[in-house]
Amino acid sequence: MTPLCELFERIALEAGASILAVYDAGPTVCYKEDRSPVTEADERAEAIILGRLAAAFPHIPVVAEEAVASGCVPDISCGTFFLVDPLDGTKEFINRRDDFTVNIALIEGNVPVAGIVYAPALRCAYVADKGRAEKLAFGSGAHVGHRQAIRARARGPALTAVASRSHNSSETEAFLAVHGVTDYTSVGSSLKFCLLAEGRADVYPRFGRTMEWDTAAGNAVLNAAGGSVVRLDGSRLLYGKMRQADDSDFANPHFVAWADMSSESALSSSLVAESVPDIRPKA
């Protein structure tokens, strides 16, 4: 892999170790102004990631979830920046489920071009850079026991969907019905994108609120594996969304992630937009 991915791996492993220490001891849960949970694991992991990225790339700004929550928003007008979610799937983490992740992504020109999704409790990671995506399985310690290139699968006669465990909705159920999807699985965090990227599912519809740091790393992995993430009108999901008229900075619209972004899939995304109401919270 590239030097950037090697750096992402080292940073994510260090952040993941700090998260697992809290996981084993039991976290203390607090709530932010938007009522989303946060633990000391989020804060410790973010401090590690911010420090390592600043040392390696002092001139590239970093947009990180907890820093933004505390009012620290860097200038990203240069068009190149990192997006960081130190602990994606905090609800899974609190409820002692293993599908939580460390997410780090590099954005260039509003597009996630590199990233890592690391699931420390599952001892696996997905990394992407320069159009190549890989899955890593870790042995003892930080040793990579297996590294394999991954690719999203071509669309077959029946679709398998992946949905959010903590944020499923009636709109998601409607989407699955429109597409005749009866086979689907639920999983937390950015692992949903990764299941598409490694060829285990076909579509991930999201009709609930997400922020850019929730999706950027998984989006980068899926892009590199041959998939795509689009808005309901079929246009690409972009990053660095500031001063939005209908939502807060860095908030995503509803989107659909596809393993095989064929013209039929794009049309389906656009058509379903007509039947699914906009339920995003307003700024």
Q: Based on DSSP secondary structure assignment, what is the total number of beta strands? A: 14
- Mean of the pLDDT scores? 88
Please bin the fraction of helical residues. 25-40%
> CATH topology of the largest domain, which one?
Fructose-1,6-Bisphosphatase, Chain A, domain 1
**What is the CATH top level name of the largest domain?**
Alpha Beta
- What is the total number of structural domains? 2
| Number of alpha- plus pi-helical segments | 8
CATH superfamily of the largest domain: Fructose-1,6-Bisphosphatase, subunit A, domain 1
Task: Walk me through this protein's architecture.
This protein has 283 residues and is an alpha+beta fold. The protein has 2 domains: 3-149, Fructose-1,6-Bisphosphatase, subunit A, domain 1 (Fructose-1,6-Bisphosphatase, Chain A, domain 1), CATH 3.30.540; 160-271, D-Maltodextrin-Binding Protein, domain 2. 32% of the residues lie in helices and 27% in strands. The protein contains 8 helices and 14 strands. The chain has helices at 3-25, 40-56, 65-69, 90-94, 170-178, 191-197, 212-224, 263-273, and strands spanning 29-31, 37-39, 62-64, 80-88, 101-108, 111-119, 124-129, 132-138, 144-149, 160-164, 183-187, 203-206, 228-231, 255-258. The chain is globular, with a radius of gyration of 18 Å. The model is unreliable at 275-283 (pLDDT under 50). Mg(2+) 2 binds at residues 85, 88, 214. Its cofactor is Mg(2+). InterPro entries: CysQ, CysQ/Inositol_MonoPase, Inositol_monoP_metal-BS, Inositol_monophosphatase-like, Inositol_monophosphatase_CS. It comes from Sinorhizobium glycinis.
